[in-house]
Design a protein that fits this description.
Blueprint lengths: L18 E4 L1 H14 L4 H4 L6 E4 H7 L2 H10 L40 H7 L2 E3 L5 H8 L6 H11 L10 E3 H22 L4 H22 L9
Length: 226
């Protein structure tokens, strides 16, 4: 009997995450999912295999119809954005939003910076809410840029950011929230027939959301209104 040391779906060691033993019916579902995805992983399973051990999260996502549809859309020849391969991501050492190291070293060293400057450059938060990942997915919903695709891939590989002790740069969260607001504004402006008073109310609501974020995260930022 074959003994797996890595998950055939993501290619990472089984010891990295919680695993599950999938038997005949589940293995058959893997084969069908691979054929729908046309990813060639059916060859890794083999035609006579009746049992296989994989990561629990990978098992759930790999056979999900919504994930299969998303995979096919992102990997179709007409799709201009190339989906990066799934890789192990160090959530405790890198910002899960931008992918860069958590601690950013400023040029010239800390001795040449005042306390305020240091705080702005290395402002980091820990994920404490189990549904934080879902909130991020809501913010980047509909976006097809490479940054958003990478974020989805990282979130797709785990069940709970808080349990992984994930970290992120506050500036990165602020950046994607601002981008989302701009996209909503652009979409609404195409067919918006609001009165001047309604437009003012919308702008006010958007600014209140921004200032609320700044208050909650104690960010020291410079805001430029164009």
């Amino acid at each position: 009997m074959d003994v797996e040391i890595s998950c055939f779906i993501c290619g990472q060691p089984l010891a990295n995450q919680q695993t599950i033993d999938v038997k005949r019916k589940g293995v058959s579902a893997f084969r069908k999912a691979s054929e729908k995805r046309q990813d060639g992983k059916v060859e890794l399973i083999g035609r006579k295999r009746n049992k296989i051990t994989v990561h629990k999260v990978c098992s759930k996502n790999y056979t999900s119809e919504s994930h299969i549809s998303a995979w096919n859309r992102q990997n179709s020849p007409s799709q201009s954005v190339i989906l990066p391969k799934k890789v192990y991501f160090p959530f405790t050492k890198r910002c899960f939003l931008c992918g860069d190291a958590i601690e950013i070293k400023a040029k010239g060293g800390k001795k040449n910076l005042n306390r305020k400057s240091i705080r702005v450059q290395i402002a980091v938060s820990n994920v404490t809410h189990p549904k934080f990942g879902n909130r991020i997915l809501d913010i980047i919903k509909g976006r097809t840029d490479s940054e958003s695709i990478c974020i989805r891939e990282r979130l797709d590989s785990i069940e709970n950011l808080a349990a992984k002790k994930a970290k992120y740069h506050r500036a990165c969260l602020f950046k994607i929230k601002i981008h989302s607001l701009k996209e909503r504004k652009k979409s609404a402006s195409e067919d918006d027939k609001s009165t001047p008073e309604q437009c003012i109310n919308k702008v006010t609501a958007a600014m209140e959301e921004i200032f609320s974020y700044l208050d909650q995260h104690e960010c020291e930022c410079e805001i430029i209104v164009l």
